[in-house]
Records
---
Amino acid sequence: MADGSSETKSSNQMWGGRFASGPDAIMEEINASIGFDKKLYAQDIRGSIAHATMLAHQGIISAEDKDKIVHGLDTILSEIDSGAFEFSRRLEDIHMNIEARLAALIGPAAGRLHTARSRNDQVALDFRLWVKEELQKTEKALTGLIAAFLDRAEEHAETVMPGFTHLQTAQPVTFGHHCMAYVEMFGRDRARVRHAIEHMDESPIGAAALAGTGFPIDRHMTAKALGFREPTRNSIDTVSDRDFALEFLSIAAIAATHLSRLAEEIVIWSTPQFGFVRLSDAFSTGSSIMPQKKNPDAAELVRAKTGRVNGSLVALLTVMKGLPLAYSKDMQEDKEQVFDAAESLELAIAAMTGMIRDVTIRADRMKAAAGSGYSTATDLADWLVREAGLPFRDAHHVTGRVVALAEQKGCDLADLPLAELQAINSAITDKVYGVLTVEASVASRTSFGGTAPSEVRKQIAWWRARN
Ligand code: ARG
């Protein structure tokens, strides 16, 4: 504290005579949250200003006291912003640190701020405001990532690559189509974010300790002042639940899992064996001993951050699962999980957006790989159904024999002489070569949501109109 006097006071001493001395060192250590909840200072001050303004409007405190409180809180805000504020662990948390400083600055009027509220609704408010802002940031970040993918998808609507199942070459697809798969995933993540913002858009302040208050407060007024749609409807639920934090963590875990799969693909694609992409220097590192190496560290770290985010979700679920209503101090453990997950997710999205924008696509390598592994075998089977009238099961069998022949000769399907194809099935004509190339294969898959460049372009346009 700037004046030094409240430095020696503990939070217990601030509220009365029941506690003869301050908590001992271990109690202070386990109890204090200021080390991490100082992050909530701006939200705490905003909440207090809205609360004091409402108290004065309702005639619960005088306009004069309200002015002193608001002025004092503004001063504290700039003290914290500028780094001049001294946080004290003896004062436990951000709420008591600010209140103690307010008392030092404005005297007895400070004691009126806590009328008709409790730290229980105060912390629920601060944290909800913080999570809501974080969700809004996440929404923006995801929009940026989707935009990066749309640009790459457009650029590579016709670039063929192998599509995989079991990481075995399955059928040729376009790289644009593969990019659009991620657009769908991150688009759903963003929809979840929007939905969560709507869910949590209710103001907790005024629920007080758990039962509401006898003071004639106006919770609709504070809700409006703080940018919430309306006040929460049950004071017990308001101070008990943290599902807004759990929802944030679940969304973060799903999005991080999507990012991790993408990171894993980048790691695989950037190996010399695959060589589908070349990472920019900005998102890779060299080896201290092997000069030829370029390591996809950023992608690996995105993959690893997912472990932290998923861990945070499980940690908070576990904290909450045994708690009787209403508030228990266990809930103080909600913040670090959310802060850590938020930081990891923000960083992971930013790194991935950068990588997607920067990465060099090696279309020649993708195309060569797309043609290997008999990836157009299904096209041959489909052709036999369409052009030669075979039942699909028979066509599958014929195609199997054709693949075995190519394997035996060590060549691609398109390199097999017509006579040898006809020896397997006499209905085959030279028109079959038209479907055996990877370009013909992808161009033919025009079903809604399919990989044909024409269809991919349609889906890009649909997303562009919504991003
Ligand atoms: N630091 C506390 C938390 O984060 C604030 C609420 C304290 N409330 C209480 N009844 N002790 O949960």
---
Amino acid sequence: MTQETSGFAAFNLNQNILAAVAATGYEEPSAIQRQSIPIIMVGQDMIGQAQTGTGKTAAFALPILHCINPIKREPQALILAPTRELALQVATSFETYAKQMPGVTVVAVYGGSPMGPQLKAIRNGAQVVVATPGRLCDHLRRDEKALLTVNHLVLDEADEMLKLGFMDDLEIIFKALPPNRQTVLFSATLPQSIRAIAERHLRDPRHVKIHTKTQTVTAIKQAYLLVHADQKTSVVLSLLEVEDFDALIMFVRTKQATLDLASILESKGYKAAALNGDIAQSQRERVIDSLKDGRLDIVVATDVAARGLDVPRITHVLNVDMPYDPESYVHRIGRTGRAGREGRALLLVIPRERRMLQVIERVTGQKVTEIRLPDSQAILDARIKKLTNSLSPLVADAESTYGSLLDCLTADINCTLRAMAAALLRIATNGQALNLDAIEKERRPMAPTNILRSDRLERSSVRLDRCNRERRFPVPLAKGHVRCRIALGARDGIVAKNLLGAILNDGRLAHDAIGRIQIRDNFSLVELPEDGLEALLTKLKDTRIAGKQLKLRRYRED
Ligand code: ADP
Ligand code: MG
């Protein structure tokens, strides 16, 4: 044990803390930990500047726990974090490091869950309070003396707290704390606003700066694809087929896009969920936990919702939408390559965003390699590889369990073993296409145009839309049917199967009542029985696919 923690043992931290650190498996302190721990341990104020993923939490949590007096049952340390997720993450880390310190309790204070239990935990003597500024101020309004015993304050991700508009709240909190406390400030950047806070509220702070920018990204292999905006969904689906990921986080710009994309992925059989600021707190925590333990593999998130998220399983970050600035990019891709593991970051670039790509390359000091959209052959290879990987561990002993059943089945059905195996493969792959023709056909409605000619496409997309809309459909209608239009098409990720399912389900129709379905790029047509059409349209008024309304209406062909 002691040998493993020799790096940490040099700090003279409380033995119980060292034992807990050893149990986490950390071998050596990170650069920010090596420099900050000795300063914070002795009660000095400090400004720490380091990128995400450098181990800042332990850099302040270990020395602060060392200073805590477990016998005194009152708040002694206050950690402020910008979001609920980060507050929870920091609180969990404190609990981990304090596991062998009996009597030390930690409370997380954040919005979106009842105030009563949080206030009670503070009054009951939690020594460590981890809070978001907004909710903490709410508590202070009820009990302005609540923080008078705090003698260590940490501002974690201070730049982010200011970006989120917590400046006024911070001032209220500073006033509620004893003036002779220790103050430690961590921030990835040090803009003027942060320096001003430091000047006013820190006493003689020591500066620690870790240059990790390039380090942060060297552990991450970065690549980009030039795509047309309309093609993003299909590109995402193709990439997911060929990328060998464990857990993956996707970034989009809007809350709606998180929902839409997550539901498309779910409909394709991925274990995916959305993460955005509108989703209830408890649900967000469930999503993160599920991603950690493998119940989910993909999270589609907005920047704010995913800040600081630390899930070691994440091997891939897929930037579906370009971030607003290079810093967000560095933060986003920092969700992978955690703790020295290698990660992969993919970026979809639409033609007019090429300049941003150059800025990103300049800021990260690294070239982002261009990759091509996987072709059907690559997708076929990936599917076969996946199938091989899932079957190969089974062949050794499945025969003893299923061999005689197989004999019975082939005899009963009167087919060859090869025919039987093929049928079983169809089940095993959920009917997924496993030959080139079928894959090409499957991809056709989603990728009707050549993505790599995206510049030209973007300019001509208006024309394409119009010609789609005006195209005639000389296909004869089934008897007693009329053609109806749905405002969603391939670009919304619609596939005929989903559409059929939604209409059958909400319209309570028999399977054969629905005629031909045609999925176009930005709308779809479906043949429905003329008899009872009005009632059917009413029933389907609120039906949604991928979060979007069908807007089903009768289609006039003239
Ligand atoms: P930051 O706050 O700088 O973004 P975190 O404190 O969240 O970084 O740490 C990032 C990851 O690195 C976490 O998974 C954490 O458990 C891990 N970690 C921290 N310190 C060490 C260490 N000394 N050795 C190995 N892993 C560490
Ligand atoms: Mg952090």
---
Amino acid sequence: MKILLLGSGGRECAIAWKISQSPRLEHLYVAPGNAAQYGTNVALNPMDFDAVKEFVDANAIDMIVVGPENPLVEGIYDYFADHSVKVIGPSKKAAQLEGSKEFAKEFMFRHHIPTARFMSVTAETLEEGYHFLESLNAPYVLKADGLAAGKGVIILDSLADAKDTLSDMLEGMFGNASATVVIEEFLSGIECSVFVMTDGEDYKLLPVAKDYKRVGEGDTGLNTGGMGSVSPVPFADDKFMQKVVNHIVEPTLKGLKEENLEYRGFIFLGLINVDGDPMVIEYNCRMGDPETEVVMPRLKSDLVDLLEGVADQTLGLKKIEFDERAAVAVMLTSAGYPGDYEKGKVITGLDGIGDVLPFHAGTKLDAEGRVLTNGGRVIALVAYGEDIADAAAKAKAATALVDFEGKYLRNDIANDLLR
Ligand code: AMP
Ligand code: GLY
């Protein structure tokens, strides 16, 4: 099987690592990729579907695996609707679960899936939005309806600030993405990420993970694309997961079917544990980053075989097995991130980290074959351990060995799950 993987981050690196181990694989191409070398990099823009098709035809690609959400929300699945190549992902309509917060909330209400109360507001209904805010208790959650590169959610402590921000958002704070704003009731609890693979009929759950979004230790400071992750998540025990399956996963899949929303890919459930009950914070139509960096290492089964099941609607016949060990990922980032940062710093020490996995995020190779930084999130170091504490200690030890000018990391990844 010849596979084209779209994307260039740590998530795609972890997927490439896993795909590259498959006996089913003939050749892996990654577009555009980074300095990791589990496949052949191709200089293709994943959003340029005509160019992707040209490459697919010229290289007899059998399957496209899509890492990030944008090509899915823009309809790459539908673009290849003739199924000349298998595309792992939802159809454009189904990708609205991520592409429109309003669509996602209405879908959940239609199918009685537990989620926060909400109201969706436009410039014409601003006054009603104010009234809804007045009916809620602080803090106030405002979400841009459309894709806003992970920055479209704002949480405010005072009602006055929430009203001002609502009006700013509707006036174009996130461009067209915030022409509609979803106001939500605030939910309090610990979050976790549940990943479902589905072929539209059957499904498999992947290992549960938790990510760390804030830049500072103790979950402080600005939001980032993710500073680290851990799997498994102790509070997501059998009892909790049974509720996730009964109240969220199965109603979601049933809802997709009932509404003829074609889906052959990953569903990412961003969940919050509210006093033992899972509620949905968000849907994403792809794998999470940096959760994938700990989920793939814990998947024992052949990913390519599972992906074929997804594409061919034979997932129900496949077996899925997990590694019992824990995995922890610590992201090395560039000084200044998520604000401005420099690129092009030489990364050293990658040869000395033993069996710790270096999943490249923002890296590139220079002409001499050196690995350079090329982004805010540079590389995730992922360690296995007998338990979370062991995996966290091993990942942390590796972070001392890999270096580049301006290296930054959080030393407390997974600590909240140890208490
Ligand atoms: P989202 O992009 O929808 O995942 O939101 C980003 C982050 O905002 C989430 O990971 C949560 O930490 C937080 N968040 C979103 N919605 C809520 C909510 N209703 N209650 C509390 N926190 C929320
Ligand atoms: N880790 C959160 C996300 O991928 O959206």
---
Amino acid sequence: MKYIIITGGVLSGIGKGTIASSLCHILSNSGLRVSALKIDPYLNYDAGTMNPYQHGEVFVLDDGSEVDLDLGNYERYLDRNLTGDNNITTGKVYKEVIERERKGEYLGSTVQIIPHITNEIKRRIRKVALKDDLDLLVIEVGGTVGDIESMPFLEALRQLKREERGQVTFVHVTLVPEIGKEMEQKTKPTQHSVKALKEIGIQPDILMCRSIKPLTTDSRRRISLFTDVPEDAIISVYEAENAYQVPEIIEKQGTIEIIKQNLNLETSKYMDTWIEYKEKLMNPQEFVTIGIIGKYTELHDAYISHKEAFNHATGNTGIGVNLKWIDSDSVRENIQILSDLDGILVTPGFGYRGVEGKIASVKYARENRVPFLGICLGFQVAVIEFARNVMGISDANSTEFSKETKNPVIDILPEQVNVSEMGGTMRLGAKEVDILDNTLAMELYGEKKIFERHRHRYEVNPEYIERIEKAGMIFSGRDEQGIRMEILELNDRKNFIASQYHAEFKSRPLNPSRLHLNLVKCALEYRKSRAGKNS
Ligand code: GLN
């Protein structure tokens, strides 16, 4: 079992996650069984309760774990499903150690960071490595070297290298800033951050240096001299037009060869499976504008899986997507903000803020026959809008937003009612969705059963289903028991669909979300028909 450990220096947000994912991609396309693990040194147990404004999207895995959005990147680049074990947090580690201490398992000894916490960290890492019969585990340490919170993890990883002699290689990601008109590359920050790493006993084996332009020979030489990393193991990760090009950038510099030597690995020849995909992604022949209606639109990372699902749609169709980020409250102030859109996505969400703007957006899409996709809360507001404006139930609402409403078209099902602990009653993870024949959903999926990921508490209220369907909305996907409504569409058009599940979480470059793909295709048709009318 071999390990690649990725640390970061100088600054956060320089693309460590993309580099980790890209390494996963090139190594798994070289015939190795690879998986990825993210270490998040924060104290939260998991990402479930974290505010998307602070931390970006909460990603959901098949097993229902709510994890850091980097796991989404790993899944997309690896084309492999991960589990909650692939995300270690300080919260998980300490909870386990304290629980064991309470059970007396440490036999009266003083419980300490070294060895008890570090042993628990190593145990969790090895568990992931052994579980899937892997050749290689790529471990990304969140944050930057020097952060107080990451210290126990780095210490554990240092020990891992000692214990697993010859099986561990350290990759350090740094920034090489370019300053002045001449864009002169500065290597000092890299030198300092490697020094910080060495102080805690870790000598990096490979450096991945982020910069705008490719690293100059001089920069490479200087960095090598001051860090003891051989020149050929200093990889230049210069600015790419698209993150999906990063695997190719690092592969071309001999990264696989260096890792093979460091870890004494055998691989088959690297096969780039994304050639066609990247070609279409980078050279779209036509464009559509899709509006993303949400309440965290200032932070695009809050909707990163949707952004990626649209990339996947482009890479499979050659239709470029311009995303227009629209704050749901601003829709209420000025509905005209939607008038130049070729398609509308109403996003997931919790809480009342922004909901009326989302409802207004669905109404606009329905009345003007603009292609529409609703996801999770977007599905629920489509039901509310339909009840209010088509069925004339003017006070229709979700009990999430109005406890007193006389018409709770969206409600909590009885078995979900017991709110025990935050996040405790959420319906999470991959669940079966059964698709009805002769529907748009069946046209898009071509399968009777699909498994899609969920993260919600509320459902379409079963008492209203018959009336809603009589009025022209079809529930074309349902859960196994037929109790929970999973997909809705309108009986008179093919460009209006919404899902209770998060189609974005399972979207992959070579297997895009069918719903996002459909929105993009419908948007192009709509754009053309509009252009036709105007000419
Ligand atoms: N707030 C809604 C619910 O809990 C929708 C959740 C979501 O959009 N992820 O059911």
